[in-house]
Amino acid sequence: MVVAVLITTAWLSLIIGARYLLVAGFVWWLQWGRSNGIGRRLNRDRPSARMMRHEIKFSLLSTPIYAFPTAIALEAWKAGGTMLYLDPTALPLWWLPVSFVLLLVIQDTHYYWTHRLLHHPRLFSWAHAGHHRARDPSPFASFAFDPAEAAVTAWLLPLLTFLIPLNTWMLVGLLTVMTATAVMNHCGWEMWPDRWVRKGPGAQLITATHHSRHHTHMRTNFGLYFRFWDRVAGTDAMP
Question: How many helices (H) and strands (E) in the chain?
């Protein structure tokens, strides 16, 4: 079992690292590698090569930390020890969207309060400062976490596979949304129309405009997907 977990951790690290480099690299080219980006520019300065190397280094250091608990869950699933299921019809189909939204809410709640805790002066310098090295982040900052932060956040989704019936394809969809959201919110451009970001359903979501302010001020806007906890806790600030 130990050897299997280590082997799975190794190939998951390669997959996670490659996915990160491909998605972040493509969005960087889309927004900064061409003459004009898409949407409204948020960054004051163009991301520097030195800072992007820092972000890539921290991201790749975090990949095995995220891969390890996922490997444990996968190997436990093979042995029938989790609540993961592959066939979407094994449970009522309505459970797929419900479980997807449920995971978004759980992940968002965990992230908000963990993120606020990591900004505590006693923790910030060694647990979260690496992510905030740049005032104007690049898409490569999307997963640039200190090892301590990665260790705190990496366990959540793997742990939930032991507690809640979850379809594997639904989890793939969730990871896709998580990756796209993280990269878009750190790319230095607001890709959504401004009227959608500030009014209606879009105003309830974390977008690049909202998260960019967190990187410039750091005392507001701690959410991941939704502005709910920021509003409840009085930390919401929309530029």
Answer: 10, 4
φ, ψ at 218 (rounded to 5°)? 70, -5
Task: State the DSSP string of 162-188.
Answer: TTS-EEHHHHHHHHHHHHHHHHHHTSS
- The answer to whether the predicted template modeling score (pTM) of the entire model surpasses 0.85 is yes
Residue at token pair 């309505």 = 94
Query: 223 and 193 in contact (C-beta within 8 Å)?
Result: no
Nearest to 215 by CA among 123, 110, 144, 126: 144
Dihedral angle computed from the Cα positions of residues 172, 185, 49 and 217, in that order, rounded to the nearest 10 degrees: -140
Helix then strand then coil, % of the chain, to nearest 5:
65, 5, 30
Scored b (16 or more CB within 10 A) or e, 63-76 reads bbbbbbbbbbbbbb
Residue 30, amino acid: L
pLDDT digits (tens, 9 = 90+) for 162-193: 999 999 999 999 999 999 999 999 999 999 99
